[in-house]
Amino acid sequence: MDTKAGWCLLLCLALSGAARTEPQATERQWRAVDVILDCFLVMEGGHQRAFASSGNREKALLVLKQVPVLDDGSLEGFTDFQNGAVDKDDQPVIFEASVDLVQIPQAEDLLHADCNGKEMTCEISRYFLQVRQEATVEKAAWFIINVQISKGGPSVSMVMKTLGDGENGAVWQPMLNLPQSLQGTVRTAVEFQVTTLTQSLNFLLGSSASLHCGFSMAPSLDLISVEWRLQYKGSGQLVYSWMTGQGQAKRQGATLKPEELLMAGDASLTLPSLSLKDEGTYICQITTSQYQAQQIIQLNIQASPKIRLSLANEVLPPTLICNVAGYYPLDVVVTWIREELGGAPAEVSGAFFSSLRQSMAGTYSISSSLMAEPGPEGATYTCQVTHISLEEPLKASTRVAPHTEQRMAFEVILASSLFLLALLFLGLQRQQASSPKSAKILKHSE
């Protein structure tokens, strides 16, 4: 068993044991632990902003040293990383990263990802500075780490710089041509990180959205700019920009956190009164005096449908119409259900659908019609609508009278119609009978 697998197994056993032995909540305290991540090292190219799509990928291990994590007692007896247990025949490149210069607010999520059944993706690649450093500093190398946790987990990007182990006569790491410590690790320090709490968000049309973007940087760095951009269907646009104390909103109503929160590392964006134009991929890009990193957040806009069920034709055969209006996105499922008195509900086929309609706001509407068969006892018909914006399906029901009641109603309508026609016919007959008599009286008077 390799070090990472054994470490995770011990952690998960500790967590499950704590859950069994401590039924009541324990006061959580901060504890510094080593957070170990299985990663891939991308050997070609410098990918500063996203996961690499090509290049040679080698196994790597990232050890974030002594990261403060809230502990409820489950980490008692948990040991830190020991490189001596790694299989020498299949030893990955091990990066030992100090986090003394920055904060890692999502460390608990990184630590417990395996135990919570979530998948974690981690890639490490070379980071190339945009501004050349002094010759004494250029001996260092820089790497960027991109970590993503599935199922609504956070995304973290970190820039780390190698430390000067070569001056101590240490051996060199053959794959990277960099000095490594006596323990066989490439020692680095994380100097900059950008994170978001979740990579995908769903908001209702017309509501307000807050897109989280946080960062932390070494004290030697200065914040230069914050930029939010929106990408949608191949086109991009600037939403908000902040540079050296001046903010500018390109989207009406868009705001960042107050200045003091921004300087403290909170660059979250607020968007009021969401419309469908706000849907897309948002990029939060943080630029410091030396580094630049970003996070990507997918914002999905949803609108819940409204339904109205009506009986369009009461005579035989009766026709039901279910109007579904104002929904977004496009996919919607309309199901008809029939239930007789004392019987079990059953799904009904044979419904017809109108053409799709789209409003000026971009929401969709559609109608479904069904010819009902109430039978001798009558039946209740339900129009059920399922949509991604709904926690539960929407339902609208109506009772369709049995054939006997419909036939009686039809006969009453028919009798009333015949009676009215008879009255109209008699009125016409009387008018025709009185017309010649009126003409004779007129002629006699002349």
From TrEMBL:
It is found in: Cell membrane; Endoplasmic reticulum membrane; Golgi apparatus membrane; Microsome membrane. The keyword Repeat applies. Its main location: membrane. It is a single-pass type I membrane protein. Residues 179-300, 305-401 form the Ig-like domain. GO terms for biological process: negative regulation of antigen processing and presentation of peptide antigen via MHC class I; peptide antigen assembly with MHC class I protein complex. Gene3D superfamilies: Immunoglobulins. PROSITE patterns: IG_LIKE, IG_MHC. Interacts with peptide-free HLA-A*02-B2M complexes or those loaded with low affinity peptides, likely facilitating peptide exchange onto higher affinity peptides. Interacts with MR1 in a ligand-independent way; this interaction may stabilize MR1 pool and facilitate ligand loading and dissociation. This is Tapasin-related protein. It comes from Marmota marmota marmota. The gene is TAPBPL.
